[in-house]
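Batch manifest line 428
LIGAND: histidyl-adenosine monophosphate
JOB: complex structure
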Amino acid sequence: MSIRLPRGTQDILPEDAVVWQHIEKVAKDVCQSYHFEEIRTPIFEHTEVFTRGVGDTTDIVQKEMYTFKDRGDRSLTLRPEGTASVVRSYVEHKLYGEANALTKLFYTGPMFRYERPQAGRMRQFVQFGVEALGSANPHLDAEVLALLIDICNRLGLVNLKLVINSLGDKESRDRHRQALIDHFAPSINEFCSDCQTRLDKNPLRILDCKKDREHLLMETAPAILDFLNEESRTYFENLKQTLDQLGISYEVDATLVRGLDYYNHTAFELMSTAPGFGAITTLCGGGRYNGLVQEFGGPETPGIGFAFSIERFILAMKAEGVALPERPQLDAYIVALGEEANQRAAVLLHELRKDGYRVDKDYMGKKMKAQFKTADRNGATCTIIIGEDELANEQAVIRHMDSGEQKTVSLHSVAVELRESIKGGAGL
Ligand code: HAM
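JOB STATUS: finished
ARTIFACT:
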């Protein structure tokens, strides 16, 4: 029996890897222009990071974590998301420094959730995320959203819908929580067993239930926006105003609750509206988490961030017909015949690479014709031919593959001549 990759995972082969590199590079460049810096945290953490951070009534913690005991009997978990880890690290390394410091971080890496795989839903997926810690200023919320839209636009994604909501502060959420209990309690027997437990522990999660989505009481459930106190409402109004000023369009959806427990105030999701995009339309999710740093033993520090998966971005780019980058092609392929010529080719290859050229040669002992074929298959702009005659005269022939034009040059001047040949194209 041949061994295959595990369900919900994928191999990213070279032709796809260039698309991944492109997305990661664009996202990093945009982050850096917004003054966000990279942070890298471990792929596994103590399980408590997530039970405490993400919340132990969430689906992620209840059903989706890859948790295992190591040989020292410690409970560890492959990270299902990045925020809890980043906050754990922020507290552990006291990144808050002096009071009133703003820390802006981005990260990328694999996350793991035991979900039912389908297009855009993997068990191992790669998130790109940002977290801004230290300020509760709606302008910062707007900046984070502007950053997200900027990344999307630079990747060619334009069929987007930004949906925002406010989950308010603790007081607002407590009032909403009671209203939810009053609303669902009389009929809770009609709901799934998960929801029955959620009623006492965390009734907000009922609104997120996949099984009871169609229940009539879901539609009429009290909306958090009606329970916002003055402060929370003002915060949300300020955010909307700033988004208007920045020309970022959005819709308010009072039913948006998000699947993780740490959120308060701003919550948002970015959807793809591209025709042909699969059943799962959410490209990115995020929001504010003002109590999370304290939860990890740090000082009172507000935070906001988002994460998207590269997998879903690629699906969206394909659905929008964005031209995807192709594998980089060779500047030149050295075609050499015979042992001596091959030795000289190896030296030349080394020199050209030091000069920054993308070059390669044959190692399979192929005949000349086959070497030209390989050069062609690799999209080499030029071939550098070293045959017996050329070798005897310390020369090489540079041939431009498209035009077929060629010139004989001294072996010592190949590096300079090659630059001309690549630039000049047919003008050899
Ligand atoms: P999340 O909504 O659980 O939020 O996930 C964020 C994004 O990760 C989703 O919108 C989607 O693009 C991607 N994603 C999630 N699960 C999968 C999956 N199984 N397969 C492929 N892609 C997936 C968070 O993770 C929060 N940490 C976001 C955040 C950062 N909030 C504040 N800061």
